[in-house]
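seq as requested:
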Amino acid sequence: LEDSDAMVRSAAVETLATVSSPGQERAIRAICRRLEHPEADTRHAAVEALPRVADRGHRIAIAQAAERLRHPQRAVRLAAVQALVQVTERGCGVAVPLVEGQLPDAAPELRESAVEAYCKVVAVSDPRAVDALGACLRDADFRVRRATVEGLQEAAAPGDAHAIRAVAGGLDHQDFDVRKSASYGLLSVAEVGNDDAVAEVCKRFESEQGEVRRAALRALELVASRNKETNISEVCKRLEHPMGAARRSALLALPIVADRGGHHVIKEVCLRMECDSLDSRRSCMDALQLVAEKSDPYAIDQVVSRLEHAKVEARESVITGLPVVADIGDEHAVEAVTSRLEHARPQTRAFAAQVLPLVFAGSDPRGIDRALPLLADSDGYVRKSAAEALGRLGGGGCRYCVTSVAQRLEHLDIEVRRAALYCLTLLTARGEQHAIDEVVARVLHANEDVRSFAVSKALRKVADRGDAHAVAAMVRLLRHKDGEVRAAAVRGLALVADRGHEATVREVGEVVQDERGAVRETGLQALCVLAEKGHPLVLAAEGMGLEHDDPETRRAAIKAMTMSAEQGDEHAIAEASLRLEHANLEVRRTAVRALTHLAAVGDERCVDAVAARLRHPVPEVRAIAVKGLAKVVVRGDDRTFGIITSLAEHQNLDIRQAATRAYGSVSQLDEHRTILAVCRGLADVNAVVRQAAVEVLPQVATRGNRFAIASLKSALVSQAQHIREAATRALVQVADKGDVHAVRAVGECLDHADPGVRRHATKAFAQIAEPNNHAVVDAVSERLEHTSPEVRRSAMRAMEHVAKRDDEYAVEAVTAHLENERSEVRMTSLRCLTRVATVGSPAVLRSIDKRLEHSSADARRAATEALATFARKGDPDAFDKVSKRVGDTELSVRKVAARKLGSVAAKNSTQSVSAIAQFIEHDDREVRKAAVDSLSEVVDRDSQLGIDTVGGKLGLSRATARRSSMRGMLKVASSGNEAAMDKCIETLTSADCDLGARQDAARVLRQLGGPGNEKVMIHNARAWANMRIQTFHQPAR
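struct tokens:
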């Protein structure tokens, strides 16, 4: 067995297997050791010999082979896998996990052998094994995938659903070869036509990746059974999918699973005509072309049967689907469609009518006769559909169709007549004489509704205005013995005759000479339509039209009167003015509109006629007269102005409002009397009148009018809130931006005692003052020194509107008040600065800097506060200036400067902290206190910088300085801070410090450590014991 010759070793292995008894342990171990031999022939001989000495399931053989699975050499592990397969039973709990562990090996040949072995040792259709093999189908090496495809036949029972799902998952892989392997793998686990396999493949039609959909189509060719109903249904389901690519894949799949003309596939496709989605129905039509033969009776029946469906989408699909399966004139299609024309459901009848042009040729009497009865259907949609179908069947003016449809114009049901007229307009062009004659014949009908419909509706549809044939027919009917027919003819003449047409007027004039009074009256009515302008009879008739209840009739009367009367016609004006007194408000308004059309502006007769109604006892008539007067007078007319002024003081609200608005129409611009009159309206008790005055003022005064602005000034200071409000809004309307007079007037209001006046003045400033106007800034700035705090606050708010941020002039004007001797003025100035300047603004810093050396201590104190407010934190220049103020001769300045050091000092800056710590030794108690208070603003709590800086002051010999440093330490260190306590201990134990310094250090240590702190107790007790400090309850010596 250890011979150097490979042939000798192989022969020895075979001989050992021959001479050994089955199950002999020594022989099994000896053969298994040869699985590790470096020569391939020896390992192969051992693999072949092992099953001869060990039966399947032999534990020692399995254990020996499994032991070699962990060998470092791949070739040995490969031989072990092959040997393990030879001695293992299917589903062996020992061998299966061992082989499964080799599946992810890096060597492709080992993975291939592992897959072959795995398929032989696992239990058939074991779900876990199936999942593992499904993953192997995605292997990068084709040999592994091939082995998996071949092995699946052994590892999974045919048709196993779990195996099918696992294998089909490979169709989703991004690699083409993996998808191909998955396709062939499906054949290994499923028979052709298996429903589960087809369903899994069809699911891939819904993928967003085109490669996956194409792989699914290729797989379908392998697994689908042609013409199997379940396979066809599964494919057709994807015709309903919302994704277009899925539907296209289903279309490509249909020829794979079904023959053309198959009943089941046609039925399945037609079922998709009922989908809600338009795209799905379109895909259904494409599919129908693929699966149905032209004129196939079964396909026709399936398509036409959707006319009876409850969903409108299904019925609409018939219109697009029927031409796919049937030609025009197909007898089976004709029978299928016409049988639905009498269906109980109206929707079915309507769509059946729409389909008629698809099965009958144009002008085919059979199709026309089938559609005509539907014009009288009880359902409106059916009638409309029938009319449209007839329009397509009889298009081009088919006389048979026109005559048959025109007869329906006599139907007693108005809806039927409308449907017939609609159909008539589809059948013929306007002006066609045959259609006109058919309509005129219905004007003679005994039924009034039929006549009225023929004239008012049908005639307009079939004849253009001026159509000679239609006009001649209407003129003839003016002499008819029936008055209803004559009235209908007048209405018809108004619709089709040109106004002022000489021939037509002459013909109607002959009718006026008729001996019959009724005919003559009809002729006069016709003349109102056709006569020239200014005819008295026409004007009288049109005047009556102004009183009609129908607004459309009144509007038409206005139009007719302006067309039949010259501008300024006395009779027309009289007729219109008479209606100003009518009881109906709408009639009065119509009369006003008529007057504006009939008379030129300033026409005395029109003005007098309207002015006469101003004395009418009814207020509503007077109100409408005021409105009318404003539209007909010349601006600046004195007489009209006097009338309007008297009405502006009327007790009736509507009249006052109308009169106020009329000022804008009757007055010249910038008339003083008009401006005063409108300003009086601002004081009216009613808000509607005040609003009218505000809106009219810009119409009577140009912007910047000094008289208007002066007139508004008194209103601005009125005691009444509503008057001030109106005056403020009016001032904005007439004052230009930055108007000096307006600004002065508003500025004076800032001093007013009433806060409401000041508030409205501030609001007005914001709208009329130009930003940064120096005069305005000075005016507002002066009020910052006012004795009244309310005035100062109003000035402060106004300054925010009149000055731009950081404007140097405005900043200087406000900063100057920091020098004021009154503290409240300085405070107001400082607050105002925050509204006109931003932090760090160079303008404000320069202005403040001038006051730091002022002779007045109050000014220096205010300037120091301002500097701390507007300097950016950490500004070294500002810090130096504030530090310098700490040495000021005045205590109040020093105190403020020390307190503000923290506002301008840089955070955690060694230089800033050291500079502030120097002031702990200051002679002035207030300075020391303020310096300590500012420490928390410049250094973080428990910062080593703060502790070291302040701790260094604990040993000062001067008690006051030490007390300040104690407070400082408590400011910069929190309770329990070890570094701070160490600093105190350092002072406590220092030989250089006197008793007072050590005593103070012990106190700070106690406060930092708190009760029970071990470090505090030990060091204080030790210092006391050594007589370095006194007990805390003993008085200091």
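The CA atoms of residues 91 and 339 lie 67 Å apart.
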